Amino acid sequence: MKTYFAFLLPFFLLPLTAAHAQQSFEADTFAVGQKKLIIHFIGHGTLMLDYDGLVIHVDPVGRYADYSQLPKANIILITHQHQDHLDKEAIARILSDKTRIILNRASYDILGFGKAMVNGDTIAIKNVKITAVPAYNTTQGRDKFHPKGRDNGYVLDIDGKQIYIAGDTEDIPEMKQLKNIDIAFLPMNQPYTMTAKQLVRAVKMVRPGIVYPYHYGDSDLSSLPNLLKGVKGTELRIRRMN
Fold first, then answer.
1. Phi/psi zone of residue 35: left (φ > 0), alpha (ψ -120 to 50 degrees), beta?
2. Which residue has the higher pLDDT, 91 or 5?
C-alpha cells in the first residue's frame, strides 16, 4: 500500500475559483510528489479531478452543477449511458478542441464521438493512465440495470497514485484483481448498485487506502463505520454528494 498524505481544506468546502464561488463543493487535496491532486465531489456519481491544472470530469451531469461555470475538461470519463451519468449538454459546456472523451460503447453510440473502451482496455493521456474495468450487477433480476460487459469503471494511474472509480456495479469478483488502489469510489444505492454489506465486501477485495462511498442518493450510510471497523488499512471518508 502506498503512503501519502491528504491536506484537507477547512470543512472540505472549496469554491473552484472566485468566479465560481456560487458553486461550492466539498473537496479533498492530496500531494502527488511535488504536485497537488484536488478531488471535487460534485454530486451523485459526478466528480471533478484537478491534477496540477489537468482537469478530469467524471460523468458530468447538469442537474448537479452549472457546467458553464466549471473549468474546461482535458479528459472526460463516462461510465455508461444512463441519464444520471451521460448528459450531452453538460459535456458540450466543458469541451475544448483538446478534450479527450473516454466512454463505453453504448455511450459512444449516443454521443457520436470520443474513444470507446471496453473492459480491459488501457490508454495513456499525458500523465494519466486510464484502464477500463468491469462494472455490472450480479443479483438476480438486477442485471437489466447494468449487464455484464456493457459498462465501465475506471482505474486512473496519476503519476503513481491509483484511483478506482467503480461506476454502477455490485461487489463483483473482478475487484479482487485490483492492486495498490490508493483511493476508491464505490457506489451504494439499491436496487442499482450495492448495499452497505456489499460495499464492505468490495472494500475487503480492493483494500484501498481511502474509500469514498458515492452515488448513494438517500441511502443510510450510518452503518458503514461500524461495518468497516475491522478492515485494517482503509480509511472511510463520507463527503456530500447530493
1. beta
2. 91
Nearest CA to 64 out of 32, 92, 41 is that of 41
Rg (CA), the chain: 17
DSSP states of 159-202 as a string? TTEEEEE--S----GGGGG--S-SEEEEE--TTTS--HHHHHHH
pLDDT in tens, 11-66: 344 455 433 435 789 999 999 999 999 999 999 999 999 999 999 999 999 999 99
Measure the CA–CA gap between 80 and 145, rounded to whole angstroms.
Answer: 11
Q: Is 157 helix (H, G, I), strand (E, B) or coil?
A: strand
Q: Residue 13's domain is classified under what CATH number?
A: 3.60.15.10
The type of residue at 236 is L
SS3 assignment, position 204: helix
Q: Which domain holds residue 166?
A: 6-236
